[in-house]
């Protein structure tokens, strides 16, 4: 028994619509590599949208450093040659400072950056 051509087109459209719908529902993955080196983060500013899944690889290029984001309860430490990778859901909009909480050297206290989480425009129902 053969299927009418219209059934195949309808099935293909249904599969495509389901795939697009699944993409809209899940968080968008946003990978970043942050280099920490004597008294600065590179990049010093990370911009994402609300509900993005943020993945950060923290590389310490010279001495041990940390990346601390109090608003998200994140405190991760990396050492030279031993990067650390972590993920979190950017579930609230705003500007959130991050910093190195280690006191290995006085300059560590100067290490500052900003996580900017922009509101995502949500379709109204």
Could you give a quick summary of the protein structure above?
By secondary structure, the protein is an alpha/beta fold. The chain has one helix at 5-25, and strands at 29-37, 40-42, 45-49, 53-60, 65-69, 74-78, 84-89, 94-99, 112-118. It has one domain: Cupredoxins -  blue copper proteins (Immunoglobulin-like).
Topology record:
Elements: H1 5-25, E1 29-37, E2 40-42, E3 45-49, E4 53-60, E5 65-69, E6 74-78, E7 84-89, E8 94-99, E9 112-118
Parallel strand pairs: 1-4, 3-9
Antiparallel strand pairs: 1-2, 4-7, 5-6, 8-9
Can you describe this structure?
17% of the residues lie in helices and 43% in strands. By secondary structure, it is an alpha/beta fold. The chain has a single domain, classed as Sandwich (Immunoglobulin-like), CATH 2.60.40.420. The strands form three sheets. A four-stranded mixed β-sheet has the order 2-1-4-7, with no helix packed on it. A hairpin with a 2-residue loop joins strand 1 and strand 2. The protein is elongated and about 45 Å long. The termini are far apart. 16% of the residues are buried.
């Amino acid at each position: 028994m053969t299927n009418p051509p219209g059934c195949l087109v309808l099935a293909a459209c249904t599969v495509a619509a389901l795939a697009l719908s699944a993409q809209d529902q899940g968080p968008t993955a946003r990978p970043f590599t942050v280099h920490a080196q004597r008294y600065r983060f590179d990049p010093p500013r990370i911009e994402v949208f609300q509900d993005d899944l943020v993945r950060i690889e923290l590389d310490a290029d010279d001495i041990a450093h940390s990346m601390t984001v109090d608003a998200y309860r994140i405190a991760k430490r990396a050492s030279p040659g031993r990067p650390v990778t972590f993920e979190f859901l950017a579930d609230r909009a705003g500007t959130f400072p991050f910093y190195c909480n280690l006191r290995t050297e006085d300059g560590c206290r100067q290490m500052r950056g900003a996580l900017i989480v922009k509101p995502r425009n949500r379709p109204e129902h």
